[in-house]
Amino acid sequence: MYRIILFISFSLLTVLSFAQINFEKGYFIDNDGKKTECFIKNSDWVKNPTKFEYRINLSDESSLGSIESVQEFAVNNFSKYVRANEEIDRSKPMQFSVSDVSSNAEPDWKKETLFLKVLIEGKAILYYFEDNNFKRFFYKLNDSKIEQLIFKEYSIDGLNLRVNKKYQDQLQQSLVCDKTENINFNKISYTKNEFEKLFTKFNSCYESNTTATTTYSKNNSFFRLKGLIGMTSSNITGYYTYNNFFKDKMFSNSVSNVRIGAEFEYVLDFNKNKWALLAEVAYENTNTTGRYRAQSINYGTVDFGNGNVQFKSIDIGFGARHYMFLAKEAALFFNLIAFQKIDLNSTASVSNFKSNYENNFELAGGFGGRYKTISAEIRLRTSSSNISNSNNTIQTRTYRENQFSFIITYTLFKTNK
Fold first, then answer.
1. Which helix or strand (DSSP H or E) is residue 225 part of?
2. Coil, strand or helix at 331
3. How many CA atoms lie within 13 A of 403 on its CB side?
4. Are the C-beta atoms of residues 37 and 58 closer than 8 Å to each other?
5. Which CATH class name applies to 222-414?
6. Tens of pLDDT along 322-353?
7. Looking at residue 104, what DSSP letter applies?
8. Among the ranges 104-108, 214-218, 220-224, which has the highest mean pLDDT value?
9. Contacts with 229 (C-beta within 8 Å, 6 or more apart), sequence order
10. Are 302 and 292 in contact (CB under 8 A)?
11. Which pairs count as long-range contacts for 105-111, CB under 8 Å and 24+ apart, including other chains?
């Protein structure tokens, strides 16, 4: 039942991630140069799009704009894309080994029609293109044509990685003004942050009352550190096996305990900050006692006497969260987290037989809400713990623990967007 609930939680997370994307004010320019004010579905694209949805009025049915019919489109104060028919080098970067890359230092040019994302706009314009694990930057100065900034990893002998950094020469020759003359272009890396700083500095040489630099790229990723406290209700069921023929449920008890720890959340810079990566560290101590009985085919009901199970652990979890914003400071969210316990001398004992604890991988699904610095979450989790008897190798016990938790977190620290 718990696995079904987790599956439903993951399915809802996926569906709602698409349902929360809004239509926002923007425009597009068609092949005839006609500008149309409209509302564009702002997907905050990770990869450069080839099409987009729009509505003339919010109540209208959606229409589709494509790279074949649109030369430019933008979401106001958020992003802008320009169609370009330019040469691009799609040489593969190194991923796992040097053998992944080309043996040729020169770009492998191919002419393509692309929607390039505008990052910085002024006297010099910086563009960006991303497709899967492939990233390229382009630039344009005054009325010149758009060109790719050349960066290529290659290996002549298949053993040693080399890099063609011609982009550094391109920038040094093109972005010349008083404010850039002391820059060491050989130290500029092929990254969005480095290029944005450089293009902004260059454009500031030419700003006036009538011309200004426009920045569309914003690094909206940020980090939260949270304190965590919660109440967990656990249902622990014990199963007993003797010599592979005696197997039955020994007991089933419910117990509550406190969970305390910390959550680390990294909110990603795409899809309008609706996705986040999570890491959680928490301490739990679950203790239950009771009368242990089991049913045998040959011997009937067997009474094992009083027993005790104590799970003490540090939980370490990694997962993902999706937000559904209700207002600027309020949101609902779904979690999916994988946990591994670090055991702190957990034990199980029945009739003077003490057992050793071995924990398996655990999966948890949660739903909750956040308002400003406080979050509350309901979480479901299931686990199976193998208990090997230290006194008798033919006797084994398995304990299944299903948890229902109510968790509150408070933001202790947050970096700026």
1. strand 222-242
2. strand
3. 28
4. no
5. mainly beta
6. 998 888 789 999 999 999 888 787 766 655 44
7. -
8. 104-108
9. 258, 259, 260, 407, 408
10. no
11. 105/152, 105/154, 105/156, 105/162, 105/164, 106/152, 106/164, 107/148, 107/150, 107/152, 107/164, 111/85, 111/86, 111/87
- Residue in the block written with tokens 């990869």: 47
As given in the structure block, the two tokens for residue 206 are: 């030419």
Side chain identity at 379, as an amino acid letter? R
CB 372, CB 331: distance < 8 Å: no
Cα torsion 295, 297, 302, 308: sign: negative
CA–centroid distance for 96 within its chain: 21
In sequence order, the 6+-apart residues with CB closer than 8 A to the CB of 73 are 26, 27, 28, 29, 40, 52, 54, 65, 80, 81
Q: List own/partner pairs for 371-376 with CB under 8 A and 24 or more apart.
A: 371/329, 371/330, 372/329, 372/330, 373/410, 373/411, 374/408, 374/409, 374/410, 374/411, 375/226, 375/333, 375/408, 375/409, 375/410, 376/406, 376/407, 376/408
Assess contact for 336 and 368: CB atoms under 8 A.
Answer: no
Tens digits of per-residue pLDDT, 187-203? 999 999 899 999 999 99
Q: Residue ranges per domain, the chain?
A: 78-215, 222-414
Compute how many other C-beta atoms are within 10 angstroms of the C-beta atom of residue 284.
21
DSSP-based three-state secondary structure for 173: helix
Distance in angstroms (rounded) separating the CA atoms of residues 310 and 356: 11
Distance in angstroms (rounded) separating the CA atoms of residues 343 and 31: 65
Measuring CA to CA, which residue among 175, 201, 171, 177 is closest to residue 189?
A: 171
For residue 328, give the nearest of 276, 296, 371 by alpha carbon: 371
C-alpha–C-alpha distance, residues 69 and 66, integer Å: 5
